[in-house]
Amino acid sequence: MIVTATEFKTNLGKYLEMARSQDIFITKNGKNIARLTSPTVDKLALLDDLVGIVPEDQAMDENTIREERLSRQ
After folding, report:
1. For residues 57 and 59, what is the distance between their CA atoms, to the nearest angstrom?
2. Which one, 10, 22, 24, 71, has the greatest CB density within 10 A?
3. What's this model's pTM, rounded to 2 decimal places?
4. Number of domains into which the chain is organized
């Protein structure tokens, strides 16, 4: 979600709640100045889990990739 700095300041509590489930991008004069994200989501770990799932020599559809990822958890 993208919000202006003024909107963020006015409704801070609302956006803190929303940050639990999604990133909040804060803009000022039309430019991104900050991102509010949940500390409980380790996005680098998620990315590491995805690396190497699809071998380069195989074509897989989205469902096959999802099943492979879930089997690794």
Report:
1. 7
2. 24
3. 0.55
4. 2
